[in-house]
């Protein structure tokens, strides 16, 4: 396992390289909030570096973060009709900037003698986009099916890369943590009256009066799954703790109670 000081040094270097590659005044003007997901970066590098060389772990983690940023930008593209030139321009810029971020991984892999990995990245991106279509365009009745789609969207790229480096055992860390983060983000969105296909599907068969209890119970189930990671991955406990502390939103229980009152 990489030691903490080396991990911090490498993650800092990846962040600096990411910012160098993606910075453009025009992008900063219109989409200033886009950046690297530092906690995902730290977690992925910590796992990948167990088998990959320092150089490979750096480049592949950087490429994964660029693809993650592209997915995050595309996630902000509204699917609703737009009726103003400014809104139309904003949507087009999000699409173009996401595509630009995504293209950077190909350049980096080709320049670092990792051309075969470009196929893995492109195929996984295609699969993620197909899963997104399943989430947003299919009328789901089964929460389990929806959850499977979302889990792959959130962790599929990392899982495929870990498989490539014979680290399949670590896949469940990313599946459980990243899905939990998505669930909590969606819960907060839904509680703020924003769309959440995941939460709406989960609550479809639950009376309104039971929504809070159902969500709290599901959160407990997800946390129990994460607790089992401490047993199966004892060398990763500090990283799991840090991700939970830094990346996960709190449950909006008090806000839900105020709404009920």
From TrEMBL:
InterPro entries associated with the record: HEPPP_synth_su1
Protein name, entry field: Heptaprenyl diphosphate synthase component 1
Record organism: Alkalicoccobacillus gibsonii
């Amino acid at each position: 396992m990489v030691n903490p000081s080396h991990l911090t040094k490498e993650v800092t270097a990846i962040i600096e390289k990411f910012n160098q590659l993606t910075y453009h005044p025009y992008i900063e003007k219109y989409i200033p909030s886009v950046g690297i997901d530092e906690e995902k970066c730290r977690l992925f590098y910590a796992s990948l570096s167990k088998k990959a060389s320092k150089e490979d772990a750096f480049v592949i983690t950087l490429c994964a973060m660029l693809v993650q940023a592209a997915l995050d930008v595309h996630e902000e593209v509204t699917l609703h009709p737009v009726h103003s030139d400014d809104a139309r321009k904003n949507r087009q810029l999000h699409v173009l900037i996401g595509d630009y971020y995504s293209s950077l991984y190909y350049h980096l892999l080709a320049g670092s003698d990792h051309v075969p990995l470009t196929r893995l990245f492109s195929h996984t991106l295609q699969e993620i986009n197909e899963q997104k279509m399943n989430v947003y365009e299919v009328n789901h009745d089964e929460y389990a099916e929806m959850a499977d789609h979302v889990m792959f969207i959130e962790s599929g790229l990392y899982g495929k890369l870990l498989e490539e480096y014979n680290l399949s055992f670590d896949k469940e860390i990313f599946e459980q943590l990243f899905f939990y983060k998505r669930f909590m983000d969606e819960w907060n969105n839904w509680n703020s009256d924003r769309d959440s296909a995941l939460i709406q599907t989960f609550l479809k068969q639950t009376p309104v009066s039971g929504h809070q209890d159902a969500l709290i119970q599901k959160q407990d189930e997800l946390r129990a799954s994460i607790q089992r990671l401490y047993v199966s991955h004892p060398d990763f406990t500090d990283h799991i703790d840090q991700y939970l502390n830094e990346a996960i939103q709190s449950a909006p229980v008090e806000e839900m109670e105020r709404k009920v009152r």
